[in-house]
Amino acid sequence: MHIRSFRFVLVIMLAHIAFLTYAQSVIVQKGVHLPKDSIVSGQLISSLNGFLSQKEKPNRDNTFVLKENLLETSALLDELKQVERNINTKDNNFYKCYVTNVVKLNDDDFIIQFSYTGVSGDAPILRASFKLKAKRENGQFYFYSLLKQNTISWKIKRVGSITWHYKDTMNKGDIKAFEAAIQSYDKRLKSPVLSFDSYYCDNLPEALQVVGIEYESDNNGVKNGSLSSHEDKRDLYVNGGSYYGSFFDPHDLWHDRLRTVMNPAVINRPVDEGCAYLYGGSWGYSWDEVLIKFKKYLAANPNADWLTLCMDVTNFEGGEKPLKVAYVLNALIAQKIEKEKGFAPVMELLGCGKKEKGDENYFKALEKVTGINKANFNVKMAELVGSL
Q: Mean pLDDT throughout 138-158?
């Protein structure tokens, strides 16, 4: 057997072993220049399969992440979760992973690019594309985000508790408002933060690019948004602006900070949204502006069935910026609880579990914390909204 043929067979065998070991296998696109050394090629493909096979785990548990770069790689890994799934067809393995480029930097360091593509009829559909660095140590490759490399020429400045990374200039008002919101949320949540790095990007495409996310169909045409990660009491925020012309969205920032201290699996969304309304407004409206709109709804619906409206999560204002009765009621409940008992009982309500049919978990926690239950909900809510 010729040496070239032997190496080709060996690469295929190693890729096949990776498939058996990790229950999935990337597809190396034709024309990609894999390392000439078949052992290195096998290690690279096998390690990439391992990295991707563990992407649904907590990011810190992925054994193919270069640990000293976990924080920034975690932000990228969040975007990889369930990337194979086609929501429209409900096919969990619609998009396949194709290695599209491998660049050798030296014997142990590579840049690797890969995309998730599916086929509908005869038309290919691109779901997402990613770029990572790969480092070989002890017979396998470890992967990590290019964030630090992509921003190596940026300036760094520490302001208060946050280390800012930026290209040229920063708006002092943006920095002050962002830090005030972070401190307000973290004080309530008792969020333990040892370090906080924030990257000051112009828009979402730039925020995605510096992390190593080259394309996402979900963000096609979207100008603003942010990425974040939280690992070992260290926080990363790659900010690409908010949808409402400001540097960040305080509503979304609330959701982000809550998840630094509470498992998303137990968060009750109506309560979470209520707190986000209360502390950060919604759709660019401040909490006071949301209340003004809600009072107009009250005036037009003096005999509202609050229990039904709350359980059905009914809009009181529709259009492109819908506002929901349940979220306002939960905001008012959280406000009352915090004023009378502190924030710890609000946390108990927040962590009562995901919304379920009948909301039994919610009402059990609500009664424990406030004495409000399904039987007296309409009366208690009428009293609460009557005080506005």
A: 96
